[in-house]
Fold this protein.
Amino acid sequence: MSQTNLRIDRIQKGTVIDHIDAGYALTILNLTGLDEAPNLITIGVNVSSNKYNKKDIIKIENVFLDKVQMQMISILSPNATISLIENFMVIEKKRVNLPEKIIKLIECKNNTCITNSKKEPIFTEFSVLEEKPLKIQCVYCDRIYKLDEIIFTKKEIKEKKIKQTIQL
Amino acid sequence: MSQTNLRIDRIQKGTVIDHIDAGYALTILNLTGLDEAPNLITIGVNVSSNKYNKKDIIKIENVFLDKVQMQMISILSPNATISLIENFMVIEKKRVNLPEKIIKLIECKNNTCITNSKKEPIFTEFSVLEEKPLKIQCVYCDRIYKLDEIIFTKKEIKEKKIKQTIQL
C-alpha cells in the first residue's frame, strides 16, 4: 500500500506564522485561541529549518492576527515572522515585535505584588530585560520571570468551546 | 513576493492518524502527550475530507502509538484510522477500536460515586452506550456522560515538560 503525500498547498488568503521556536506551535495555537478556529490550519512541528535547526510553522486560512495574538507569539517565539497572504501572494511579511513592556497579558505570581491586591486592581506590567532567552521583570515588585515561569492572564484567553474543555 | 508551498512529504517511518473528527487533532496530540515529542509532526486541521466533510490528520515520524493512546483517539474520534509506515510504505492500516468498556482512562465526575471514595480506591469503568455521538455510563453509579463532559484521569497524562506548563 503506498502512502500519499500530505501536500499542503499555498493558501489563497490568510496568515503564515513561520520560524516559530521548535515545539511551540501548539502552545501558540492554544493561547491565541486559533486552535478553535473552524478554518483550515496546517502545522509543521520540528521541521528542519536549515542544516542545524528546527522550527515550527503554522498556516491558517482566512484569519489575520490581532495585536494581542501577535504579542503572545512574540513572547513565545521572538524570531517568528508573520506573512499576510492575499490572492496566493505574500503581501506583507514582518517579524514579530517583542515590546519593551508587556502590559496586562501576563500575571505576576508574587502574591504580595500590588497587582494581586484585591483592593487596588491594576494591570500588570513587565519590562523585557532579555529577549532570548526571555527574561521579564514586574515593574511593581521587581520579580523576574523566565519563559517557562510565565502565566498568561485568564482574561486574555478566549472562552473555550465545549469540545475543548476536556480537562487534564 | 511569492508564497512557497508547505510541502509535507511522505514520512519514511512512523504513524499517520487520519479521519480525525475535524478540530480534534490538537486535543488528541495534547492528551496522548505527542505534542511534546521532539519528532517531526505535520498536522492538518479542518482539511476537506470530501465534498461535504472536514477532517483532521496527523503524521508523526518515528513514533508508534501504544494501547492507551489509541484508546484515547478512539474516544475522541471513533472513525479515525491508524497507518503504520515503514520505508515510506503503509505496512498496516487499521480503524481505531472503541472498546465496549473504558477502564481507568476517564474520571467519574459524580462525587458520590464509589470510584471517588477515598477509602476504597478502585479504577473507573464505563460502558460505551453509543459510539457516535459518544455516550458512556459509569458502571458503578450509572451516571451518563457525553463527549464534551468527559474528563480524562490525570494519572494517564504524561508529565508536561517545563516549556508546556504555561498555564491558562
